[in-house]
TrEMBL record:
Protein's recorded name: Type-4 uracil-DNA glycosylase
Family, similarity comment: Belongs to the uracil-DNA glycosylase (UDG) superfamily. Type 4 (UDGa) family.
Listed GO biological process terms: DNA repair
Pfam families according to UniProt: UDG
Length: 297
């Protein structure tokens, strides 16, 4: 008997009616038509593991090119025998060196050790306050040495700003005549200066910050010239030099004392400004009394 065709292991074999009759006669119908048991997969063959002998170096393998080239900035030597290592930490960026502009030295410190010529140069080049922006000339002062009298005015006017000299024009002519009447001369023994060395716009009164910036020049002039007495002309100059807000009427007619940084006391006499006397000629008599008081000290 010919065996039936092979069928999948999980299904019963197919037979035709004639074959079924023969199987029934032989008593093998049930046995033959029973489904075959599922096939069991054969175990995979065991692959022997070869132990590598590290006592001898392996043969050099052919170099295998990288599939994708590594970025050049990551190729860093990490030590002896290592091709690539972690990229080094970036160096901290150096901050741009910004040289801070040196702070301007206060005038009082700048003039502390200056002689008269150095002091003049400092006044001419001064930018300590805003008055420097509108001046033609800074007015240092002018006069004879040794100095018997120091005459102190308020600030340069228009003519003083043009010429760079103190008390010029009609006011200066009147002052020269007044000094000559008591035997004094700006060319011989009188030095004339101002509290403020630059002309305020429109001849206005100087501002407090302008006085603070400029008055150290006058203080240094007094220390260098060492005058026997000081004649102060005008309310503003008198109040600044004596450190008071008293009126000029209450300050004139008597002798004040000014103490220098060196401890020296200098007599101070207050009088009217020549420009005021030109506007108020009746006050010239009182100004004459002030001059005689200064001459007697």
């Amino acid at each position: 008997m010919t065996a039936p065709h092979s069928t999948p292991a999980s299904a019963a074999p197919r037979v035709n009616p004639l074959q079924r009759l023969w199987l029934r006669e032989l008593g093998m119908e049930r046995l033959w038509l029973r489904p075959a048991p599922p096939a069991v997969a054969a175990p995979a063959p065991q692959v022997p593991v070869l132990k590598q002998d590290f006592s001898t170096p392996p043969a050099a393998a052919a170099p295998v090119p990288d599939a994708v080239p590594a970025p050049t900035d990551t190729l860093r030597p990490a030590g002896p025998g290592l091709r690539n290592g972690p990229p080094p930490k970036p160096a901290p960026k150096a901050e741009a060196a910004v040289e801070a502009a040196p702070a301007p030295m206060p005038v009082a410190m700048a003039v502390k050790h200056a002689n008269l010529d150095e002091l003049r140069e400092q006044v001419v080049a001064c930018t300590a306050c805003g008055l420097c922006g509108g001046r033609r000339h800074a007015v240092f002062g002018h006069g004879g040495q040794p100095t018997r009298w120091l005459v102190v005015g308020e600030a340069p006017g228009e003519q003083e700003d043009r010429q760079g000299q103190p008390f010029v024009g009609r006011s200066g002519q009147l002052l020269d005549a007044m000094l000559s009447a008591v035997g004094m001369s700006r060319e011989r023994d009188v030095f004339i200066a101002n509290v403020i060395k630059c002309r305020p716009p429109g001849n206005r009164n100087p501002k407090p910050e302008e006085i603070a910036a400029c008055s150290p020049y006058l203080m240094r002039q007094i220390a260098l010239l060492k005058p026997e007495r000081i004649l102060v002309l005008g309310r503003f100059a008198a109040q600044t030099l004596l450190g008071t807000d008293a009126t000029i009427g209450s300050l004139r007619g008597r002798v004040h004392q000014m103490k220098t940084d060196e401890g020296r006391e200098i007599p101070v006499i207050v009088s009217y400004h020549p420009a005021y006397l030109l506007r108020s000629p009746a006050e010239k008599a009182r100004a004459w009394q002030d001059l005689k008081l200064a001459a007697r000290v």
